[in-house]
């Protein structure tokens, strides 16, 4: 046994988030950690790696009681944690981040050549082609996550803890990561793996520990437990049906019609129609330009040419508030950088986008509180305390709050970018049903997602993008993973010449 | 033909007296350039001694002046820079504050800071019959202020005049007002105020008026600002006199320097401008309503 | 570390909110100990009246800083507005006479100039995408030059004929409360309401805390930022309106270093220099603290005048240290 | 909009890097147009020599600001160190005579004081968890008071006997390059190497960019931050060492507003006021630009002296606007 936690308890102020949890990690084993949003997974692993101190309980390393006073002490003992929340300095480059605090030197000076070469090697191992000199703030989220992984790799972990590494990764990147994890396992590294994706746990883990409300529920061999059982242990009840039952009706009027929109360098002549009560999925490989297209539509990005019509009349949108006026709302996939004010509590975050609804000239605090009450209920947001900074929320609860924030504007058209990133399976199903309810009310949804099941399970039609173009729009029985991949990789292209 | 260039380096107009200095310098430039078409005066202003040293360098290297008229910010730091101008073969006129080493300047038009302090002290002694309680508002901690205060202290030495306290008011009206307000809260009885400078004095006067203690004391300023001269002229009991320290001395110096080039006469030596006491009787002579100071 | 903060959040936040008040009370006790005259109603009234100028300007600065900006031009702007007011009113005395109209027009001019100057700072920095530090450093020089130029290097003095009419704006009082204090109170309350209770204030917090999030929350970042500079300009103009009748003059030395004092008042009050968190009451107390320190130094001759600056500096540091309440940690 | 940045990264960054140089060249052309004497070797040498003071201080400020701090005390610190040096050297003239030893000891004193003063700023702000703005505002008053006190309100002057020995440090040259310029160059190169080529510099960037991340990367944030203030102190002391032989004196007005000039040079050079990104060469150019603007104003008397500040302010804004290169966007 490499590392274990014995009777770990943790409180933040009056709120106790971990109750008497014990967990053992063994060399050459992948141990999965499973639990609802806010169950305490991240908190537990932060304690194991020395980022937090337990309120009571102790850690053992190779059977010896031990204490990591700082994350540094943890790292010295070989415990490396990849944070759920990206933990990179945005203004520094990839190489600078990877070697931050332990730069390679020649004499007094930085050995930049060596660091760059090393970075290149690390990135190559991850089959990641970003430049070591790219600044983090210019990278897409998935690339940032790969940098995070590369950074951990470079530290030669004995015990590697990954907190939802795949939430922002693409299928291909997940495959690469899994290959890596398997290799590390054979090399005798102890691995603790957190994910909400039960398939992944089935595929990679040897044992699984389930937490619920900060308590240890069970530890089982993965081979002995089905996905349904895992979900049941986690949520404490059966999950009835993942996706809502919906009947597509292609005859409803078009509420949004986009023609010929381009974003220099990212999107070329994109166009589509969105019908009332429809879920229109947008699939594609990360970087295909889906986000860029949507941001251009809602006025957050300079676009060149094209027209947008709402209910048949041309409209001009040059800013997000224009879009809001026309009943269009957008949920960003970058919840920390663009979604939430991390240093504030829930209330101002919830109402920021729809402030005018809460009174003018003065903000009606009571109305805000009431809205918060409703949102907490509707989106099942679990925070230890109303006054907790949103930055201290569990990742999933941040996502739910962001969704609640966007819905405060009561939009007719919702553009949702990666809505279930980091969301547990129970809540995911809630969100899917919520989307179903929206369409039932006659609202329309544009869903940007990299998760194939939700794309297929929710969308009435699926637009596929490749290299900045919409290569096809699939409906009916064409909506299969295979077809999507054909269009996403540019093998098929209904809309003219190959983009490549 | 090329004009004869005379550089004039003075402190920037950052307080009342320096403002007057700037105004007089510019007026003199206009007048003298009209009177002597072959002369070109170049006025540069500096906010601190370092900047003034820079200005001197520029006057020599880019303007290639023939003569320099300088009112040094402070004596010590500008001694070497002026000496360098001298070494470049220029004619030097120093105004007001003497340099720390003798023999650098050709002409010295001296103001007399000690006299300003001494005259104020003498008047106080006489007016108060050698005893009373006074407060003093000082300028900025610099040599000029030091000289004035030292001479003032010396002149009241031996009398029964008690200086209740001295505070810096930075040659600034607002500071004069606030410091005086606090003196007024602190001391129930004040016979006179030596404000040393007319800007400060104006602030002091407002504070006294506000506290309704105008009958209790009087104020002595310094410099010769038109507002104060006017009060003296009008016989205001609060400001019985003012001690002149005329910023017009820069004009005098510029005029003298011009003569060096316009006449064959030997122009050199010291011109000492005393500190004149302005009283209701002679105030008319010193009242220039058009001057900004 | 964040755990620690989290844990004692309840206590710490409370203490942080009252921190500046505690520091102010300590200063008052110190003042009384040094000189009994400190607590005289005359002296207290002086302190509050004096704080008004910097205080009103600092209320505006709280908006700018909360929204992540900075304005170095306020002192020069005050001098410039004061100068322009004086020129305008002196001119009007000839035509309109010395009635209240002349003063009112002067006040309107002041407000228009304040708004205009603020708009210049705001628009140049947002549209031109130039750091506010540079823009306002530039306009600081600009406004100061303008007043020097208007005054011909000297002092602009308000016509004595009109002073009587205007005088009560500074020297008057209502129920014994000096006018400037009333105005300060009014500005502080208005500022508090605007910053804490309106959508506009909320947006200032959001922008200062994360501009991207603000942008993605349909906030017109440039507009709100520009508005904070306009509010700053308006506050400067209000401060100037009560400043002018005091001494009736403006010169190039008017308002020198007020920007530093205003920013210091804001920061002492607990607003974060990096933006995202602002506190009007803290600012008010910060302004009072700065004035009180100056007042206390004038009430004693125990300290060499040469060392005033040192004592002032040390008191500021210690006061801020005390009010942060971090020293309390050590106990546990 | 952000896409724009991403996409054109290559061009934009290049332009940003050369931006300050372009602005400087424009200034030089302006200077030459106004007066041919601008390009005379004497004048150029003056400009470079003068830039040295502020430039050396600004190199230190680049470290502080890059690591997310600010130091308002540099001007007072310079005055204080200059004063102390003068007192020490004058004292030594009696015992040691006017040889090089006296000057050397003066220099050592200066360096020790610079390091000490920087350490005070750094330690009080990091250990005391007080905003650097407040701490250095406090020490700004403190150091200035100390020099006033030492000078008894007047001016401290270096003994004329020792001036000759010390003189070459400012007035000397090597192969025609004035000593101050050589020292400036040395400091700039050392600063560049330290900031860009050593682990220390990288840590400064990291701390300014995200303190939390730095902390998690086992960086001793407090120590690095304190070190930046010490470097700042050291730079101030070096600047003072070449300043003292120039004017041979120190008083309470020495170094007033140098902090603003130094920070302005840093920001003009492209370093971000919020920290996380610093550029030594930009700072050097920023210092040169500020000096050149002052020099250009002395080249002509077409502009009223009263408006110097206005012209200076406008040139700074325009220069920064040009160098940011954002105006190029409009073309597309
Ligand atoms: N620093 C903190 N201060 C206060 N509360 C905290 C802090 N960190 C975490 N919490 C709270 O502890 C609880 C557990 O959070 P944690 O991040 O461990 O959940 P999680 O299981 O990782 O959830 P998710 O799946 O959403 O990531 C949450 O209620 C969270 O708000
Ligand atoms: N290189 C970059 N420079 C600047 N911003 C970027 C860059 N890459 C991504 N972003 C920003 O991140 C956001 C999402 O980027 P991403 O690449 O995922 O979007 P996309 O190209 O539209 O791809 P997708 O189809 O996966 O949404 C966009 O808002 C974009 O502004
Ligand atoms: Mg988590
Ligand atoms: Mg001329």
Can you walk me through this structure?
Chain A has 500 residues and is an alpha/beta fold. Chain A folds into two domains: 3-235, P-loop containing nucleotide triphosphate hydrolases (Rossmann fold, 3-Layer(aba) Sandwich); 254-488, P-loop containing nucleotide triphosphate hydrolases (Rossmann fold, 3-Layer(aba) Sandwich), CATH 3.40.50.300. Helix content of chain A is 32%, strand content 25%. In chain A, the strands form five sheets. In chain A, strands 6-9-10-3-11-12 form a six-stranded mixed beta sheet, sandwiched between helices. In chain A, strands 18-19-20-15-21-22 form a six-stranded mixed beta sheet, sandwiched between helices. A four-stranded antiparallel beta sheet of chain A has the order 2-1-4-5, with helices on one face. In chain A, strand 9 (159-163), helix 6 (171-186) and strand 10 form a beta-alpha-beta unit. In chain A, helix 13 (365-379) packs across helix 14 (395-407). Chain B is of the alpha/beta class. Chain B has helices spanning 16-35, 49-61, 75-87, 113-127, 143-156, 173-186, 198-211, 226-233, 249-262; strands spanning 4-11, 39-46, 67-70, 91-95, 107-110, 131-138, 160-168, 192-194, 218-220, 242-243, 269-272, 277-278. In chain B, the strands form three sheets. Chain B has a six-stranded parallel beta sheet with strand order 2-1-3-4-5-11, sandwiched between helices. In chain B, strands 7-6-8-9 form a four-stranded parallel beta sheet, sandwiched between helices. In chain B, helix 4 runs parallel beside helix 5. Chain B is elongated. With 332 residues, chain C is mainly α. Chain C has a domain at 49-255. Chain C has 15 helices and four strands. Chain C has helices at 2-7, 9-34, 41-66, 74-96, 100-127, 132-150, 160-166, 168-171, 179-197, 199-209, 211-215, 221-247, 258-268, 280-298, 308-324; strands spanning 155-157, 173-174, 177-178, 249-251. In chain C, strands 1-4 form a two-stranded antiparallel sheet. In chain C, strand 2 (173-174) and strand 3 form a beta hairpin. The longest helix of chain C has 28 residues, at 100-127. The two termini of chain C are 15 Å apart. The chains are: A alpha/beta (500), B alpha/beta (293), C mainly alpha (332). Chains in contact: A-C, A-D, B-C, B-D, C-D. At the C-D interface, helix 6, helix 13 and helix 15 of C face helix 6, helix 13 and helix 15 of D. One magnesium ion is lined by residues 29, 33, 40-42 of chain B. The site of one magnesium ion has 5 residues of chain B, from helix 1 and strand 2.
């Amino acid at each position: 046994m490499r590392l274990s936690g014995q009777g770990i308890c943790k409180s933040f102020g009056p709120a106790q988030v971990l109750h008497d949890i014990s967990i053992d990690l063994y060399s050459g084993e992948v141990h999965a950690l499973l639990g609802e949003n806010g169950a305490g997974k991240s908190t537990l692993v932060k304690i194991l790696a020395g980022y937090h101190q337990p309120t009571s309980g102790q850690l053992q390393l190779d059977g010896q009681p031990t204490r990591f006073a700082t994350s540094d002490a943890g790292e010295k003992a070989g415990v490396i944690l990849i944070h759920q929340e990206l933990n990179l300095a945005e203004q520094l480059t990839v190489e600078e981040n990877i070697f931050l605090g332990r730069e390679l030197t020649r004499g007094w000076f930085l050995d930049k050549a060596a660091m760059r070469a090393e970075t290149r090697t690390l990135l190559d191992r991850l089959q990641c082609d970003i430049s070591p000199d790219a600044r983090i703030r210019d990278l897409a989220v998935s690339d940032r996550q790969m940098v995070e992984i590369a950074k951990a790799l470079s530290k030669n972990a004995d015990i590697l803890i990954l907190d939802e590494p795949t939430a922002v990764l693409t299928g291909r990147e997940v495959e690469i990561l899994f290959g890596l994890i398997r290799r590390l396992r054979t090399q005798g590294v102890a691995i603790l793996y957190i994910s909400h994706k039960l398939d992944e746990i089935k595929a990679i883990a040897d044992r699984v520990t389930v937490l619920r409300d900060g308590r240890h529920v069970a530890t089982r061999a993965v081979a002995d437990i089905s996905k349904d059982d895992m979900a049941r242990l986690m949520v404490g009840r059966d999950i009835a049906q993942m996706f809502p039952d919906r009947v597509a009706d292609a005859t409803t009027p078009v509420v949004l019609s986009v023609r010929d929109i381009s974003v220099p360098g990212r999107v070329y002549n994109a166009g589509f129609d969105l019908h009332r009560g429809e879920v229109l999925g947008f699939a594609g490989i990360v970087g295909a330009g889906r986000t860029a297209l949507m941001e251009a539509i809602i006025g957050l990005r300079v676009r060149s040419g094209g027209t947008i019509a709402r209910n048949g009349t041309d409209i001009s949108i040059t800013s997000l508030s224009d879009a809001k006026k026309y009943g269009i709302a957008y949920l960003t996939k970058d919840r920390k950088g663009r979604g939430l004010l991390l240093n504030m509590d829930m209330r101002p975050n919830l109402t920021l986008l729809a402030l005018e609804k809460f009174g003018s000239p003065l903000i009606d605090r009571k109305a805000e509180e009431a809205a918060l009450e409703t949102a907490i209920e509707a989106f099942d947001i679990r925070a230890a305390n109303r006054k907790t900074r949103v930055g201290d929320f569990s990742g999933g609860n941040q996502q739910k709050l962001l969704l609640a924030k966007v819905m405060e504007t009561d939009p007719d058209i919702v553009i949702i970018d990666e809505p279930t990133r980091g969301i547990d399976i129970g809540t995911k199903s809630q969100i899917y049903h919520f989307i179903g309810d929206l369409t039932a009310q006659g609202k329309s949804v544009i869903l940007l997602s990299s998760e194939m099941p939700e794309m297929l399970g929710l969308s009435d039609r699926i637009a596929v993008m490749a290299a900045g173009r919409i290569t096809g729009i699939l409906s009916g029985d064409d909506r299969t993973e295979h077809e999507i991949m054909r269009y996403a990789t540019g093998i098929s292209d209904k809309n003219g010449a190959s983009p490549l | 033909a090329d004009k004869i260039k005379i550089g004039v380096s003075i402190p920037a107009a950052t307080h009342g007296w320096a403002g007057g200095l700037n105004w007089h310098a510019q007026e003199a430039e206009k007048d003298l350039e009209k009177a002597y078409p072959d002369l070109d005066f170049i006025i540069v202003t500096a906010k601190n001694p370092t900047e003034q040293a820079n200005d001197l360098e520029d006057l020599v290297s880019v303007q290639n002046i023939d003569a320099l008229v300088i009112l040094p910010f402070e004596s010590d730091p500008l001694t070497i820079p002026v000496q360098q101008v001298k070494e470049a073969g220029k004619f030097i006129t120093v105004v007001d504050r003497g340099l720390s080493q003798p023999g650098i300047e050709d002409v010295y038009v001296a103001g007399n800071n000690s006299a300003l302090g001494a005259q104020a002290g003498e008047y106080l002694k006489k007016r108060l019959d050698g005893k009373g309680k006074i407060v003093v508002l000082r300028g900025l901690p610099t040599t000029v202020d030091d000289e004035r205060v030292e001479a003032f202290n010396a002149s009241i030495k031996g009398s029964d005049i008690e200086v209740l306290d001295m505070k810096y008011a930075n040659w600034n009206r607002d500071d004069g007002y606030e410091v005086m307000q606090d003196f007024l809260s602190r001391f129930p009885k004040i016979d006179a105020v030596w404000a040393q400078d007319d800007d400060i004095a104006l602030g002091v006067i407002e504070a006294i008026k506000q506290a309704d203690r105008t009958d209790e004391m009087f104020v002595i300023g310094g410099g010769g600002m038109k507002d104060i001269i006017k009060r003296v002229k009008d016989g205001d009991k609060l400001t019985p006199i003012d001690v002149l320290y005329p910023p017009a001395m820069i004009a005098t110096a510029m005029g003298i320097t011009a003569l060096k080039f316009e006449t064959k006469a030997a122009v050199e030596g010291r011109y000492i401008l005393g500190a004149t006491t302005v009283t209701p009787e002679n105030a008319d002579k010193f009242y220039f309503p058009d001057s900004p100071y | 570390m964040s755990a620690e903060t989290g844990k004692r959040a309840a206590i710490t936040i409370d203490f942080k909110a009252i921190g500046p008040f505690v520091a102010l009370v300590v200063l008052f006790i110190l003042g009384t100990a040094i000189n009994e005259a400190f607590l005289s109603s005359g002296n207290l009234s002086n302190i509050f009246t004096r704080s008004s100028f910097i205080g009103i300007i600092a209320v505006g600065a709280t908006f700018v800083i909360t929204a992540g900006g900075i304005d170095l031009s306020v002192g020069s702007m005050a001098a410039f507005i004061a100068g322009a007011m004086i020129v305008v009113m002196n001119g009007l005395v000839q035509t309109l006479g010395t009635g209240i109209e002349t003063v009112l027009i002067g006040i309107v001019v002041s407000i228009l100039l304040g708004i205009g100057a603020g708009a210049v700072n705001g628009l140049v920095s947002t549209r031109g995408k130039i750091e506010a530090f540079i823009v306002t450093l530039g306009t600081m020089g600009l406004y100061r030059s303008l007043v020097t130029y208007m005054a011909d290097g000297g002092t602009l003095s308000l016509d004595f004929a009109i002073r009587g009419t205007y005088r009560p704006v500074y020297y008057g009082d209502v129920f014994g409360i000096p006018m400037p204090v009333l105005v300060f109170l009014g500005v502080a309350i208005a500022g508090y309401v605007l910053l804490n209770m309106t959508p506009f204030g909320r947006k200032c917090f959001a922008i200062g805390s994360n501009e991207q999030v603000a942008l993605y929350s349909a906030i017109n970042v440039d507009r709100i930022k520009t508005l904070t500079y306009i509010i700053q300009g308006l506050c400067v103009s209000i401060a100037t309106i009560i400043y002018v009748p005091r001494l009736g003059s403006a010169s190039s030395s008017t308002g020198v270093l007020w920007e530093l004092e205003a920013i210091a008042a804001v920061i002492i009050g607990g607003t974060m220099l990096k933006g995202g968190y602002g506190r009007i009451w803290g600012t008010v107390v910060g302004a009072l603290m700065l004035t009180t320190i100056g007042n206390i130094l004038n009430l004693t001759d125990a300290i060499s005048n040469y060392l005033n600056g040192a004592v002032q500096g040390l008191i500021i540091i210690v006061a801020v240290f005390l009010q942060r309440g971090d020293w309390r940690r050590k106990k546990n």
